[in-house]
Design brief:
This protein is α+β, with helices and mostly antiparallel strands. The strands form eight sheets. It has a 16-stranded antiparallel β-sheet. Helix 4 runs antiparallel to helix 5. It is globular, with a radius of gyration of 35 Å. This is BamA/TamA family outer membrane protein. It is found in: Membrane. It comes from Hymenobacter terrestris. Pfam families: Omp85.
C-alpha cells in the first residue's frame, strides 16, 4: 500500500508546485501598468572612480521596487487582488450619512455631539487611508514604480551638481533607458516555460558618468574687513579644515564656515552670523587647480562688536510666582542668585555655571552651562538668555558691547515615585513581581539625589545544574524562586575628596555615587544573600565619553542553607570536572577596585552612524594575606558559621561596536568583545563534609560571579545564557538518581545543554543587518560567533585555550529577528539556530540538524537592542 501512495503523493506535490509556479509567474507586476506605462526594473551608475557611489545612488530620484527581504511589489499585488475601492467608498458614504443622522438626533447635547464627531473622524480617516493607499496588505508592500523620464532628467542634473561640489568641474553624464534584453526568471521553470524572458514594459536606466579631473586647492587666501576679527581668524588658521593640495569640496567649505562662526562666537562676537562669510573659487590660473578666497564682511554699520558680560543672574525657581513678594538675592563669585527661597545652595549651582561677569560672551560656555545644569536632574528645563545693554547704559565705544545674562531654571518635583507591577514567564513558570522606587531631589540642599528601591517577586528558573526532574528524562526541571531586594543610592554633584578641587574640574561634570544593595534569594535547593556597597567617581570627558572610577567595591555573599541533594551534585561537578560552581555557594568577601571607560556616540534608538567602546579593568582581594590566614575553612554542616573567604583576582574586558548607517532606516552593525580573568595567587582550602571528613586542596580560585560566560540574548544567541563552552568540551548529563554516574539512554550518554560553563577567556563577535519592515516594525538578520576557554589546565577536555586550536572552537549561530520600535521602548524577538557547534561529538555542523528543538534553536525576548 505504501509503495503506491508515495509516488502518488510526489505527483500531487509536483503538480501543486507547478500550479503555484504558474500562479507566481502569472502574477507579474506588469499587469498593474496602464497602457503606455513601463516598469522601472533596475538603475545602474557606471564610470565612478573617485566619487562616492553610495552618495550618487542616493541622488537618483527613482529607484526600483525593493526586493529585500521580500519582493514588496508582489505583496502589494497580492493585497490588490482582493481590494475593492468602490466598496470602501460606499462604506465611507454610509458612515458619513449614519453619523449625520445621529448628530441631528443628538440635537443640543454638546457632549454627545462631540463624541459622535470624534468617532466619525476616526472611521473617516481609516476609510480614507484605504482609498488613498490601499488596504493593510497593500500598505505592507510597494506599488509598481512607473518609469518617469522627467525624474531621470532631474537625476542627471542633481548628479552633475553633486560632482561639481566635489571638485569635478568638467564632469559629463549621459543616460540611457533601455529595455532589458534577457532576464533570468527561475520561477518560469515551474510553469514549464523558458527561464529567460524579454519584457518590453521593463526599463533599465543606466547613468554613465565621466568625472573628469579633480580640482585641488593651489592657494588659500582670506580677506577680512574687520582688523580685530582678522587677527583672530589668522591666529586660528592652524585649525582650518582647508589645506593646500586638498580636493575641492563644498561640504568641507560649509564646515569651515561653521568653524569660523563658532570661533568668533566663542570669543565674544555675539552678533556674528554665517552670512558674513563667503568663499570665492577661481579656476582660471592653472589647469585643475582652485584658488579659494575666504571673505569675512563687516556689518552694514561699522565693525563687528565684541560683547562682554556685565551681569549674570541665576533664577533657580523660574516659573514660580509669588504676588507681592520679591526674590531674595545672594551673590557668589559676582553672580546674582535669585529665589523666593534658596532651596539649592548657590555654591552647588556655582560649580556648574561657567558664565562670569567681565568675561567675553562665549557660545561654548553657554552650551556647557546648559548641559551641566541639565545633568543635575534638578530642573525641568533651563534657558539662558542675553539682553544687549543699550541707551545711556551702553559704553561710549561703539566697537564694544555689554550683555546681561539670565539663567532661568524651572525646578523639578522634589519627590518622584515609581511603582511597577507585572509578571514574567520564565522556564515555563509565571511569576509576579513588584518594584517601588522613590527619588528625592536636593535632599541635603546641595543638589544631591537620594534614591530608594524595594523589589520583590517570584521568577521561574531552570535547575542551575541542568539535571532532569521527570521520569522521561526529557523535561528540564523548573521551579519558582523568591527574590527580595532593596537598594539605596546617593549621587553628589561633585567629587567627595578630602582636598580642595580646582574649578576646571567642573567642566567634566564630576559626580560621586554611593550605593548599597541587598538581595535575598530563596530556592528549593539553597538560600543565598548578597550585600554590596560601592563608592564611585564619575566624570565626562565629552558628551560621548564617560569615566567611572570605583575605589571601593565590596560584596558579601552568604549561603545560609543548601540541600543535601544539591550539595552532592555540586561536589560531583567539582570532583569530576573541577567546576567552580560549588564556590558560588560558599561565604565570600569580595573587595575590589575597578575603572570603566565608556565611549558611545549613538542615541537611545540607535539611529546614527556611531561607535561604542567600553573598557573595564578590575583588581580584587589585594593584600588578603595581611588579614586572612590559610588554609581557609568551609564547614558544609553549618554554612552560616563558615568564615568569609577572600580570593585575589584581576579582570579585564573590552567591547567594541560599530554602527554603519546605510540608508535613512537601514544599518549594518558589528560587535567584537573579549575579556580575561585570572587568580593572582593560589588558595589553600579545607572543606569539612557532611559526614565530618576533611579535604584540603590548593588551587587558583576566582569568585564565581567574576568568571566570563558566553551565550544569551546579547551574546551568541543560539545558545542559552551562560551555557556556551568551554572550548570544545562536551557536557553530558548525570543520572538524577545517582549523580556520580552519567545518564545513559538507549546505550548512549545524553548531552547537557543547561549547565553553566564558566571561563577565564572570552572572545566573541556579532554582525547584524537591520532594516525596516512596516511602520514601527523593524527586521534583522544576524550571525554570532564566540566561546570561552580556561587559561590554566582544566579537568574538562578541550576547555583550555590553545593557540593552535582556538580558531577551530568558535561556535557560530545565525538567525533573524523583529524589533518593535515604540520610540520610548524597543521590544525585540530574535530566533537563532546553531550553525557550528564545537562541542558536538562527531559532525560539528549543527545546521545539518536544523529544527526548532530547544537544543538547536533559541527564542530570545528582550527590551532594547542586543548591542
Amino acid at each position: 500500500m505504501k509503495r503506491f501512495e508515495l509516488p502518488r503523493l510526489r505527483r500531487l506535490a509536483l503538480a501543486g508546485l507547478l500550479l503555484a509556479g504558474s500562479g507566481l509567474v502569472g502574477c507579474s507586476p506588469l499587469r498593474l501598468l496602464k497602457p503606455g506605462q513601463r516598469l522601472l526594473s533596475d538603475v545602474n551608475i557606471r564610470g565612478t572612480d573617485k566619487a562616492d557611489p553610495e552618495r550618487l545612488a542616493a541622488l537618483v530620484q527613482q529607484q526600483p521596487n525593493s526586493s529585500f527581504p521580500l519582493p514588496k511589489v508582489t505583496i502589494y499585488q497580492f493585497g490588490r487582488s482582493f481590494y475593492n475601492p468602490e466598496r470602501i467608498a460606499r462604506k465611507l458614504a454610509d458612515t458619513q450619512a449614519d453619523y449625520a443622522r445621529q448628530i441631528t438626533e443628538a440635537g443640543t447635547d454638546s457632549a454627545q455631539v462631540g463624541k459622535l464627531l470624534r468617532r466619525r473622524e476616526q472611521k473617516e480617516r481609516r476609510y480614507q487611508l484605504a482609498l488613498d493607499k490601499g488596504n493593510a496588505v497593500m500598505r505592507l508592500g510597494e506599488p509598481p514604480v512607473v518609469y518617469d523620464s522627467s525624474l531621470t532628467a532631474a537625476s542627471v542634473q542633481q548628479l552633475g551638481v553633486y560632482l561639481k561640489s566635489k571638485g569635478f568641474f568638467r564632469n559629463s553624464i549621459t543616460v540611457s533607458d533601455t529595455v532589458p534584453t534577457r532576464r533570468f526568471t527561475p520561477l518560469r521553470l515551474l510553469a514549464l516555460q523558458p527561464p529567460y524572458s524579454t519584457d518590453s514594459q521593463r526599463v533599465t536606466v543606466t547613468y554613465t558618468i565621466e568625472e573628469g579631473p579633480a580640482f585641488h586647492y593651489s592657494r588659500l587666501d582670506d580677506e577680512v574687513a574687520d582688523s580685530a576679527v582678522a587677527q583672530r581668524v589668522r591666529t586660528a588658521r592652524p585649525q582650518s579644515l582647508l589645506r593646500e593640495g586638498d580636493q575641492y569640496d563644498e561640504e568641507v567649505i560649509g564646515a569651515e564656515r561653521v568653524r569660523l562662526e563658532t570661533l568668533l562666537k566663542n570669543q565674544g562676537y555675539y552678533d556674528f552670523r554665517q552670512q558674513y562669510i563667503t568663499f570665492e573659487a577661481d579656476t582660471s590660473f592653472r589647469p585643475t587647480t582652485v584658488r579659494l578666497r575666504t571673505l569675512v564682511d563687516a556689518p552694514p554699520r561699522g565693525q563687528h562688536r565684541r560683547y562682554t558680560l556685565r551681569h549674570v543672574d541665576f533664577i533657580s525657581d523660574a516659573g514660580i510666582v509669588r504676588f507681592g513678594q520679591n526674590r531674595d538675592t545672594l551673590v557668589r563669585d559676582s553672580v546674582n542668585y535669585l529665589a523666593y527661597r534658596h532651596r539649592i545652595s548657590p555654591r552647588a549651582l556655582d560649580r556648574k555655571l561657567t558664565l562670569r561677569p567681565n568675561e567675553p560672551y562665549s557660545l561654548l560656555k553657554t552650551q556647557r552651562t546648559q548641559r551641566q545644569l541639565g545633568s543635575l536632574d534638578m530642573f525641568r528645563f533651563t534657558t539662558i538668555t542675553y539682553r544687549r545693554v543699550r541707551g545711556a547704559e551702553a559704553p561710549a565705544d561703539s566697537t564694544q558691547g555689554l550683555l546681561d545674562a539670565t539663567v532661568s531654571a524651572a525646578p523639578a518635583k522634589r519627590f518622584q515615585e515609581t511603582v511597577e507591577f507585572g509578571g514574567t514567564y520564565v522556564a515555563q513558570e509565571v511569576g509576579p513581581f513588584g518594584n517601588v522606587r522613590l527619588k528625592i531631589r536636593n535632599v541635603f540642599g546641595g543638589a544631591e539625589i537620594l534614591e530608594f528601591g524595594v523589589r520583590a517577586g517570584f521568577e521561574g528558573q531552570y535547575d542551575i545544574t541542568g539535571t532532569q526532574g521527570s521520569d522521561t528524562q526529557e523535561e528540564l526541571r523548573s521551579e519558582l524562586t523568591t527574590q527580595i531586594g532593596g537598594n539605596v543610592n546617593l549621587v553628589l554633584p561633585r567629587f567627595l575628596v578630602p582636598w580642595r578641587v580646582g574649578p576646571r574640574l567642573g567642566e567634566f561634570n564630576p559626580r560621586t555615587r554611593i550605593n548599597a544593595s541587598y538581595t535575598y534569594v530563596d530556592r528549593p535547593d539553597y538560600t543565598r544573600t548578597n550585600a554590596e556597597a560601592t563608592f564611585d567617581y564619575i566624570w565626562q570627558r565629552s558628551a560621548f565619553h564617560q569615566y567611572v572610577l570605583t575605589p571601593i567595591d565590596l560584596s558579601i555573599i552568604r549561603t545560609s542553607n543548601i540541600s543535601a541533594r544539591f550539595d552532592s551534585i555540586l561536589q560531583n561537578l567539582l570532583i569530576r570536572q573541577g567546576s567552580p560552581l560549588f564556590r558560588s555557594f560558599d561565604n565570600l568577601l569580595i573587595p575590589s577596585l575597578n575603572v570603566t571607560s565608556l565611549y558611545n556616540s549613538n542615541d537611545f534608538n540607535q539611529t546614527r552612524d556611531a561607535r561604542y567602546l567600553r573598557l573595564f579593568a578590575e583588581v580584587g582581594g589585594l593584600g588578603r594575606g595581611l588579614f586572612q590566614q590559610q588554609p581557609l575553612l568551609t564547614d558544609t554542616r553549618n554554612l552560616r558559621q563558615s568564615d568569609l573567604k577572600i580570593y585575589d583576582f584581576t579582570k579585564f574586558t573590552a567591547d567594541y561596536r560599530r554602527y554603519y548607517k546605510l540608508t535613512s532606516d537601514s544599518y549594518l552593525v558589528y560587535r567584537l568583545a573579549g575579556g580575561a580573568v585570572a587568580a593572582l595567587s593560589k588558595t589553600q582550602l579545607t572543606t569539612i563534609g557532611r559526614d565530618g571528613s576533611q579535604n584540603t586542596s590548593t588551587s587558583f580560585l576566582i569568585p564565581y560571579d567574576k568568571y566570563l560566560f558566553a551565550g544569551g540574548s546579547s551574546s551568541v544567541r543560539a545558545w542559552k545564557p551562560r551555557r556556551l563552552g568551554a572550548g570544545s568540551f562536551t557536557q553530558y548529563k548525570f543520572d538524577p538518581n545517582n549523580p556520580t554516574q552519567p545518564l545513559i539512554v538507549d546505550g548512549q550518554r545524553v548531552r547537557d545543554f543547561n549547565l553553566e560553563q564558566p571561563g577565564e577567556l572570552l572572545l566573541e563577535g556579532n554582525i547584524e543587518y537591520r532594516f525596516p519592515l512596516y511602520n514601527f516594525i523593524k527586521g534583522a538578520v544576524f550571525t554570532d560567533f564566540g566561546n570561552v576557554w580556561t587559561l590554566r589546565p582544566d579537568p574538562r577536555p578541550g576547555a583550555q585555550f590553545r593557540f593552535n586550536k582556538f580558531y577551530q572552537q568558535f561556535a557560530v549561530g545565525s538567525g533573524f529577528g523583529f524589533r518593535f520600535d515604540l520610540s520610548f521602548l524597543i521590544m525585540r524577538l530574535d530566533i537563532a539556530t546553531k550553525v557550528y557547534d564545537p562541542s558536538a561529538p562527531g559532525n560539528k555542523w549543527a545546521i545539518r540538524n536544523l529544527s526548532f528543538r530547544e537544543d538547536q534553536t533559541a527564542f530570545n525576548l528582550g527590551i532594547g537592542y542586543p548591542f
